[in-house]
User: Fold these one by one.
Assistant:
Number 1:
Amino acid sequence: MLENVGILTGGGPAAGLNAVIYGATKAAHEAGYGVIGIRHGWRGILDGQIMEITPARISGIANKPGTILGTSRTNLTRVKIGKGSKTEDKTQEVPVFMKTHKLCGLIAIGGEDTISVAEILYNQFDLPVVCAPKTIDGDVCGTDRTFGLDTAANWVANAIRGIHEDFASTGYIACVEVMGRKAGWLTLYGGLAGGSHVILIPEKTYVMSEIADQVKKVVDRYGYCILTIAEELKIPALISKIQEGAGPDSFNHAQIALREKGWAKVLAEQLQKSTGVEARPIVLGHAQRGGPPSVLDVIMGLQIGRKAFELIHNGEIGQLVAWVSENPVPVDLKIAGGGKFKPIPPEIYEPLLANLDL
Ligand code: F6P
């Protein structure tokens, strides 16, 4: 008899991951199932790295950042072989793994990348997978929100609130760089709530001279300026100044955190040159992912986790547990999968940006 549920977490850590693990495990134990944690995302399937998730193991984890399972960016469809660039599709190892560990279902918690692998496993092997939408980037399709974004946005807002008086005292320009890849949710929400004067998001294309004019106006009015900028921007005249570091990850995303020179530095240099005002780059970095989980992310995580288990128990597989109108709701994986991502639509960013205090 297949009596266990498997759980894994993939991609970058985000608040709420442990709450999902807790919610799903609690519900599974109540129903008499065992729970097997797969370590470090999809990689744990290849390495056979597992841990039994017992009631003692989940005690007190729901409000802790990170993930007790560990995570990785392993893409099962393109697993690196040896030291060169050769890759192999290892998806066929998942059905074998599930049989070995008597898994009647697999809960894959992650963003667009983790979800796209789960979708392939469901379509090609008919595997009983259910996903949970995690990411501080907020860019998973088919869900109103992803858990992790709220905590990270609060953390970003507090970091920005914390530098206003410093920059007001020195009269400098701050270029605060925020994670989020090609989506500006974290930059927009955190930047606006933090009281930034200028916000630049990846969804828009900017002209450097216009940014400089805007910053000059802010400095003339307030004596300093705080810009919150996304880690990916479209400022065509400056793109050649961005220096790449390591190559792309296994999902073909640029590893932005490893860049030798990113947008904060490039923009600060440029603004100092064009305004004559001293400018400082501030890269918020991985601390954005580590703040204490917000109430919303914990509550979402617990409900999504429980729902994910219920779907497996009821045989409603191939679903993402989306967050829709404040409820955990199953949506077809094809809506969220296929490598799609959700940028901020103009009808959301335009009115929010109109609130900037210029
Ligand atoms: O996708 C989540 C994310 O936090 C991005 O916002 C960021 O660019 C990336 O992960 C950083 O990845 P890493 O953990 O590999 O440095």
Note: The chain has 13 helices and 13 strands.
Number 2:
Amino acid sequence: MNPLLLVKKEPYKLYINGEFVASESGKTFEVINPVDNQPFASAYKGGIADVKKAIIAARHAFDEGPWSKMSAKERSKLLLKAGQILSRRVEEFATIETLECGKLYMSALYYEAQMSIDAFEYFAGKARCLEGKVVPCDTGHLNYVLWQPCGVVGEILPWNGPFMMGCQKVCAILAAGNTVVIKPSSWASLSMLLIAEVFHEAGFPAGVVNVVTGPGSEVGDELVRNPLVDMVSMTGGTEVGKHIIGSSKDTVKDIALELGGKSPNIVFNDINVDEIVQWAKFGFTNNAGQVCVSGTRLILHRNIYEEFIGKLKIECEKMIPGNGFDYEKGVNFSTLISKEHASNVWNYIKKGKSEGARVIMGGEPYDDPELAKGNFVPPTIFADVTRDMTIFQEEIFGPVLCITPFETEEEAIEIANATKYGLAGAVFSANIKRALRVAQNIKGGQIYVNTYFSKGMIESPGTGWKESGIGVAGIQKYMISKTVFVDMQDGSIPPA
Ligand code: NAD
């Protein structure tokens, strides 16, 4: 299969008010394949005028359009229909995601695409069981609590999993009864521009879903500041998240932020080293470390320290970097998204060396000229990393592992909690009481015990603690509560 046959020759268009349109400026941008840094497609570049049009369309569809007046059953059926359309086009989406983000095609096809379809099915069901509650009221009044849609939601996405994450978030937004303006990352816009075709074909009313590309400082910023947008959800880096907290203040807008992480992975000495080495490897090399919940700080019991590190090195050296379509050649390690991002990661590697961490492997570019065309950074392992080092404290968002030894349970927890982040974490131990105690004490919103990575992202989403985010997780992130008091007495009057 030639993947380029699935790429449109003309620029991918914005989707506003039920129409595929060029940007007002007519400007386009090249879409780059990070495996060789060559352009393979183009897309219209949105700006403030475009996003304003999209916001008005979403506002109209929510306030006056059919969407908010539809029954949950009707909305659910539309989501199911869209999921079926996506299933039909799954190879196209997996191909585009592989080309644009440098992913492994098999993972894009058999994991991310399947999880994306599942999001349509799950949220189609969820749309029909959004329940409130009745609160016992001593005064004899009836009190009930409703969850209602926020209204117009701006969804700002990162580049590291735009297809799956975009589907999961947009389906939740729609199931809750909102309308949406999606702002994908400029590094990865195509999957959301394409998903607009799915919603269009399924028959979603105009304005319910809108997709506008463009710079975060313009298009994203407008979504945050515009008073016609009721709620903004952003997934991305902590610095941009902090900026959004500031720019949302004038409208006191509801915001939800899913931000960076530096997740601890604690391994006790009562485990099977050969098995757990595989989890440690997977935890920091999956998608070349470009996963928010990556286990990038391995906190390793001193009694197995050198043995574990030696075996981890052997396993990581077996990884085969390359083009994600070359699965038959065994490629299982991907590129970073861009030259700029790879350069940031190299700077952290230099910093790790200069601050005195011990390089176990990696830390130098690959020799292969084919790989030099892309943005590959080999799995890089630093041992003896102390908490005062930059590489211990800051999110690198690449395949860089920092290993720190510990002796006692208390010390492991203290090291785990010694950064500003609180996104995720893991603990490996055969002693289940101890493992659960540690899970309880890691300050983070998503913890894995004797495994790594979430097994139910939409059913059981994690909340970012500390500087890893704000806002509740799950569909209620896109809803707002209302409490209603009902007087059931005939002729009651206020107290004198
Ligand atoms: P980023 O913060 O650079 O960008 C995220 C999005 O915000 C992009 O669409 C960008 O255009 C937009 N943006 C930038 N400036 C803006 C502004 N002033 N106003 C509004 N929007 C603006 O992040 P990234 O590099 O695309 O993604 C990587 C980061 O995302 C990592 O830190 C990673 O940990 C994080 N992430 C977090 C989660 C999570 O669930 N917590 C999931 C995936 C990724």
Note: The mean pLDDT is 97.
Number 3:
Amino acid sequence: MRLAIFASGGGSNAEALMAMAITRGTPYDVVLCITNRTDAGVIERAGRYDVPVEVLTAEQIASGPAMLDVLKRYDVEAIALAGYLKMIPVEVVQAFRHRILNIHPALLPSFGGHGMYGLNVHRAVVDSGVRWSGVTVHLVDEGYDTGPIVLQEVVPVEPDDSPEVLAARVLRTEHMIYTTAVRLLAEGRLKVDGRKVRVLERD
Ligand code: GRF
């Protein structure tokens, strides 16, 4: 499966996906890294894996047809959002229905939605007093963090956690769960039935 990764920031999840892609038997290749920022850390990381990078123009970020042109040029079959902070145009969501994954550093549907990204999420989790946070990988639909859930994993919140300490603990789990989810998509093992995603056994 030809995967494009979209990232706006440091790109540690992108790197976890690229590192997995070059290990033997992985059912996907990372054929493109897309970012909206010229200073994104993911650019340097992609270079280390010989993955081409496209820095999108304002038009390519906002216009579905323009973004689809970029994806077509690389024969992209699926997309993994990894800290991409822009909305995906609706035409792209429709063209790649059930083929776009996003990772969110909390247990959706809590602590998600507009403005809930980066440390904002972990600050809200710590302030709320919940004992458990976690990671959610979901399919992308037309909303913010609203698509069907593919995988979740819990991560404990310790009494004295700062948002930064919790973020680091959650990030370690993100790297594991995201590679697993992308593999499942590549193996055709995600069966979507409305809001529910069933993970099929290996044949
Ligand atoms: C991760 O916490 C991811 O869940 C969120 O943004 C962060 C990106 O981190 N959507 P990185 O750029 O992958 O290191």
Note: The mean pLDDT is 97.
Number 4:
Amino acid sequence: MTMRVVFCDPYSQPEPWLDMLRRHLPGVGVEAWVDGTEPADYAVVWAPPQALIDQQTRLKALFNVGAGVDKLMQLRLPARLPVVRLDDAGMGVQMAEYVCHAVIRHFREFARYETQAAQGVWVRRPASPRTDFTVGVLGLGVLGARVAQSLRQFDFPVIGWSRNARVVDGVRCFVGAAQLADFLAQSRVLVCLLPLTVDTLDILGRAALSQLPRGAYLVNVARGEHVVDDDLLALLEAGHLAGATLDVFRTEPLPPNHAFWRHPKVTVTPHVSAQTLHEESMAQIAGKILALERGETVAGMVDLERGY
Ligand code: NDP
Ligand code: OXD
């Protein structure tokens, strides 16, 4: 019987994705999922409805067209269903350039120089010492480790925090809740690259953000739900935090009346820090489908218990 793959992403047109999957899976039946589609062997999804899970009872694996599986974790998934997320697939380099840009823009005061230039003002500011400009990266997974290593290329001291002990070249690593306070106290810039789970929801509220050194800067490129918006705004107003670059929000698109849009210390981008690339992601997923068919193991398996 011909192998069948269904694709579902309520937020995008399916054709480009289907074309690429078909190209990488010749001889396989690839179709867009609609309510009532016959059970298939594999599903490739982003934020699918519960109906897909309920109706696709023969799936050998569910592939998430993204690195974060928080949307999938809101569904009722059969415990036996293997869930596979994107593993870099071209996102690492994008995340590295986005975060390095945000950190360097802050460190080198480029926003101030842009304002000066617009006013025709020639004023040099003293260079800041780099050795005590420590960047802390929350999450040392596929993307966090890549970002931490990219920041090291600019000689910033880099520290990282994860759930289990990690070794990342040139990065001082902190582990678990017990070492979070110590990690935060040393982070002049805090970069969030955690998955959204019950443990990391609201993690960047007043309690954690207050532990950053006065004048610290926040870069959130993970999920909006990590940050308690009002607490961040209050700490910016109080001058405890110097600013924030935010790519992700609790509600996306960010509502027009949200304070972040107009806040002078906040830079907003529309969830673009690392975009899912059609070609790279479909090639990776197709390769993994073929590997699973050969009985091999694949990277990026999600642990449904821990939620990432
Ligand atoms: P990974 O699963 O590879 O890494 C997650 C890291 O977070 C791991 O180091 C993990 O620790 C750590 N972590 C998880 N829970 C905790 C916890 N409770 N305490 C401490 N550390 C924890 O994910 P990726 O690097 O691939 O992606 C990270 C997130 O980035 C995604 O989940 C997604 O939400 C977001 N993302 C955003 C994009 C955007 O465009 N804005 C694009 C792509 C992803 P351990 O190593 O011990 O397991
Ligand atoms: C992802 C994302 O998780 O695009 O891949 O946010």
Note: Residues 66-68, 86, 276 surround oxalic acid (ligand 2) (CB under 6 Å).
